Amino acid sequence: MEKERLEKQLAFIVEADKLKNVLRQNVVIGTTRNENSAEHSWHLALMALLLSEYAREKGLDLFRVVKMVLIHDLVEIDAGDTFCYDEAAHEDKEERELAAARRIFNLLPEDQAREMWDLWREFEEQKTPEARFANSLDRFQPLLLNHHTRAHTWTKPGVTREKVLKRNSIIAANAPELWEYAQRVIDQAREEGYLQD
């Protein structure tokens, strides 16, 4: 039984390595190379460790936040990364990601598959303080990259200041000090002509 458990865990770990091949819209600071989803997840975990003091709700289960941000995009192995400002791509996003979650998490032993599923659903549903803070970081990280890459994704067709504000508004409710910073970044991008009204 132990051998079978280890084989399932290792199969999942090998499958998770595929996240390194999923490219996002943002580019890595100082390069023209697209960030991959594994890098994004690692960056969020680091941000959770360093920025948790800015969460509106105190006493967060930080380990739970870190687990959520590390696994939240594993579904992109099958579903791909959906550009947040592509409304058409969002029409079947939930369906694609649910199917991916079932397949990928079920590679694990049953108890760990259930934990991964529960964490992923918690992140998606945003009903807990931990999930809301994790989602705030998930919005803040690309904003930070845009700030340091001449608004790389914000200059794409159809992206406006209003859409960026709406997309990132979750930060306001869950990390007000980070939201103040975010607003300054958005205003600066507009002033510099990178982000249109």
Features of the shown structure:
mainly alpha; 10 helices; 2 strands; Hypothetical protein af1432; 197 residues; two-stranded antiparallel ribbon
Question: Could you explain how this protein is built, in words?
Answer:
The protein has one domain: Hypothetical protein af1432 (Orthogonal Bundle), CATH 1.10.3210.10. The model has no long low-confidence stretch (mean pLDDT 96). It is 61% helix and 4% strand. It is built from 10 helices and 2 strands, in the order αββααααααααα. It is globular, with a radius of gyration of 17 Å. The longest helix has 19 residues, at 129-147. It is mostly helical and 197 residues long. It has a two-stranded antiparallel ribbon with strand order 1-2.
What is the count of DSSP helices, taking H or I runs of 4+ residues? 10
Question: Strand pairing plus helix content: what structural class?
Answer: mainly alpha
Largest sheet: 2 strands, antiparallel
CATH superfamily membership = Hypothetical protein af1432
- In the CATH scheme, the class would be Mainly Alpha
The CATH topology assignment is Hypothetical protein af1432
Protein topology:
Blueprint: H1 2-16, E1 23-27, E2 34-36, H2 37-51, H3 62-71, H4 76-79, H5 93-105, H6 110-125, H7 129-147, H8 161-168, H9 170-174, H10 176-191
Antiparallel strand pairs: 1-2
Helix pairs in contact: 2-3, 2-7, 3-6, 3-7, 6-7, 7-10, 8-10
